[in-house]
């Protein structure tokens, strides 16, 4: 909803309690409804008309004795004066304009605020609000720098780490969805997901003209979930669940980049919690731990999901249910870290703000050495001795995506490797990163030979100079989405 679609209750919610503007408009509305002039009410409460005018205009907040005097003079209770709902739609509109003009964004423009009076039309007030809303949007876009995005992401990762990447409310929501359709165990079928969708009031539609900037689109008005027809049905379960997460989790339009990232994490978590239910996955993992044979492949095969989802789901349950601290990495073949999580103390590469994603992974880590292995059928196991932090063990696999190949790795400290399959591996490496001499500098011999002769052209990423994606849902073309929904309604 925009500021142009003001609902009186919503316009005065939250900050309304004790709001001088709201109180002033209520006093004015009660005074005029009783046929009293400003001077008459001022005499009744033993105050100067100018003082009462300041109260009605929201420029002065009366103390409790004054509130009591006003309530008596107007024949109401103090609670009535402090009601959090605007007395009328017009009053709500005036309050919104006054708040906008008193805000930092409006004041930064250096404009003289207009005086809101009875003679000011609704159209004028709505126009002011509309312009103010657009200026605020532009300020938010200007503030949405890559630094802000990385900072929001770092804060989110810290929150995930503090709870061991386990969210009880989402686990409960996933269990409730499965119980509602009679799930009895085993891999969660496509039909089960379709039943969940129907239970939530949505039908599934596969289309060939999905907006290019979206994975799925929900039409809340008509109860439809649109997915690309190019997605094989066996792989559609996760996209459907991620789409429905907005309904299950009660997501509203994100008001910040941090909220957008949080919603995306919740959607991915819910999908994993449904496809690998806690009640079924924990006993399997607990048995594997007892047998000292924990394996991401076994978890993947038991529930018919991707290796990445199995690995990520393992991080949800490892600390809370198995007492294991772990780390997870997804790295592109170029060495760029795409996703990362840890609560086992491993030191991921990071930028100055402490953000992992986008940093370069050491060439000697499992997430990079796996790309050099000819055997892609079996998992790659490796110990890595860190310059600081001891020894870590990782299991890793290479997956394919439209952006190229990437590795998915799960690892633990040396002290916890006894619970995992692959602990007997003889593969071992050393990492001295962030020391450039570890893996980023060529040998002295090669440097002397080529440094004056080499002139490479950088494959500059298209995003290098691009602004951070903007909009309510960053990176999504709203015009394209609305046109799509209109064509399918």
From TrEMBL:
Keyword Metal-binding: no
Record-annotated membrane-spanning stretches: none
Record Gene3D superfamilies: lambda repressor-like DNA-binding domains
Every HTH cro/C1-type domain range: 27-81
CDD domains: HTH_XRE
InterPro entries: Cro/C1-type_HTH (IPR001387), IrrE_HExxH (IPR010359), Lambda_DNA-bd_dom_sf (IPR010982), TransReg_Diox_bact_type (IPR050807)
Keyword annotations: DNA-binding
Family: Belongs to the short-chain fatty acyl-CoA assimilation regulator (ScfR) family.
UniProt xrefs under PANTHER family: HTH-TYPE TRANSCRIPTIONAL REGULATOR, METHYLPHOSPHONATE SYNTHASE
Protein name: HTH cro/C1-type domain-containing protein
Organism: Leucobacter alluvii
High-level lineage: Bacteria, Bacillati, Actinomycetota, Actinomycetes, Micrococcales
């Amino acid at each position: 909803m925009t500021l142009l679609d003001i609902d009186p209750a919503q316009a005065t919610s939250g900050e309304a309690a004790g709001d001088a503007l709201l109180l002033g408009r209520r006093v004015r509305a009660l005074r005029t409804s009783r046929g009293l002039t400003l001077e008459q009410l001022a005499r009744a409460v033993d105050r100067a008309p100018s003082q009462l005018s300041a109260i009605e205009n929201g420029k002065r907040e009366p103390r409790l004795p004054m509130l009591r005097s006003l309530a008596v003079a107007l024949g109401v209770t103090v609670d009535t004066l402090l009601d959090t709902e605007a007395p009328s739609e017009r009053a709500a509109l005036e309050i919104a304009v006054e708040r906008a003009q008193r805000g930092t964004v409006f004041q930064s423009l250096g404009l003289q605020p207009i005086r809101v009076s009875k003679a000011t039309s609704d159209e004028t007030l709505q126009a002011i609000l509309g312009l103010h809303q657009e200026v605020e949007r532009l300020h938010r876009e200007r503030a949405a720098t890559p630094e802000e995005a990385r900072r929001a992401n770092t804060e989110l990762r810290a929150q995930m780490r503090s709870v061991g990447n386990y969210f009880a409310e989402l686990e409960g929501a996933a269990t409730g969805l499965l119980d509602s359709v009679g799930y009895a165990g085993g891999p969660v079928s496509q039909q089960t997901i379709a039943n969940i969708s129907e239970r939530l009031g949505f039908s599934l539609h596969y289309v060939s003209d999905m907006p290019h900037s979206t994975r799925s689109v929900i039409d809340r008005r008509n109860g439809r979930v649109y997915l690309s027809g190019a997605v094989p049905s066996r792989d559609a379960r996760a996209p459907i669940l991620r789409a429905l997460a907005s309904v299950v989790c009660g997501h509203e339009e994100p008001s910040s980049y941090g909220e957008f990232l949080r919603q995306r994490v919740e959607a991915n978590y819910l999908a994993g919690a449904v496809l690998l239910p806690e009640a079924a996955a924990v006993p399997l993992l607990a048995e594997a731990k007892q047998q000292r044979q924990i394996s991401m492949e076994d978890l993947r095969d038991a529930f018919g999901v991707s290796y990445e989802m199995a690995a990520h789901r393992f991080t949800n349950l490892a600390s809370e249910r198995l007492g294991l601290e772990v780390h997870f990495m997804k790295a592109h073949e170029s060495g760029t870290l795409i996703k990362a999580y840890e609560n086992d103390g491993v030191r991921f590469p990071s930028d100055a703000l402490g953000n992992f994603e986008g940093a370069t992974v050491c060439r000697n880590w499992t997430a990079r050495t796996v790309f050099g292995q000819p055997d892609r059928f079996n998992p790659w196991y490796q110990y890595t001795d860190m310059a600081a932090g001891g020894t870590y063990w990782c299991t890793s696999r290479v997956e394919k995506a439209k952006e190229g190949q990437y590795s998915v790795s799960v690892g633990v400290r040396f002290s916890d490797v006894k619970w995992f399959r692959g602990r007997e591996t003889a593969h071992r490496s050393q990492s001295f990163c962030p020391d450039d001499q570890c893996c980023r500098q060529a040998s002295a011999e090669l440097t002397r030979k080529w440094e004056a002769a080499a002139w490479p052209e950088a494959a500059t990423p298209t995003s290098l100079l691009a602004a951070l994606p903007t909009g309510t849902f960053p990176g999504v073309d709203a015009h394209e989405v609305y046109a799509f929904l209109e064509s399918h309604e």
